[in-house]
Amino acid sequence: xxxxxxxxEQSLASTEAESTQYTPKNLKIAAQELLKYGxxxxxxxxxxxxxxxxxxxxxDQILEPLDLRLKIDDIRGLAFLVVSAQLFAEExxxxxxxxxxxxxLNLEQxxxxxxxxxxxxxxxxxxxxxxxxASIELDELLPQLQLYLGDTGSDAxxxxxxxxxxxxxxxxxxxxxxxxxxxxxxRPIITHLANPENLQNLLQHFRKLTGQQPGAExxxx
Length: 221
Hints:
The chain is mainly α. Helix content is 48%, strand content 10%. It has two domains: 22-83, no CATH class; 107-210, Arc Repressor Mutant, subunit A. Helix 2 crosses helix 3, helix 5 crosses helix 6 (138-149) and helix 5 crosses helix 7 (155-171). The chain is elongated. The chain starts with 7 loop residues before the first helix and ends in an 11-residue tail after the last helix. Mean pLDDT is 80; it is low at 15-19 and 213-221.
């Protein structure tokens, strides 16, 4: 007897299954890590970071339907997500993304970021670009914050204000938790999180309010 003709639908399904291209496991893990944390650091997750810098195009293909793309700072050892250019133009003040909530910092948080960024840039100028994380003691940070915001008249309240601000920035991945020695680590991603000109203008504005001369504290890029 002649063989029954093959079911066209079954043949099509079989062909599609055979031709399906599965994403390699290492790419999946790297992409999932980026979607979870938004960032890969060479110092903390070197294997995943290497995948990101070696497979940038492949990861961008995974991210493209989500209107995200991968940005690499190989000098500082950073791989991080940014919103695609077609969704967000720098001159556009308003944008929305279904997976990303736009973070708006208050004035005190922005001021602290500006101060921390200055310390980080000074650290890189001294130790070399890409020198890694920079540490700063709270006792060194507190007077600078008081210089711009004033003091409350209570050291305990001023310390609490600083720690609360640092805790908020920690949730954004900008700094570490305050350690047992009352030090905090400034992470390299701080160089990419805010417009440096805006931060510098903010510091200059506060200097004017507090009556400081422009040269009272060296401006750092």
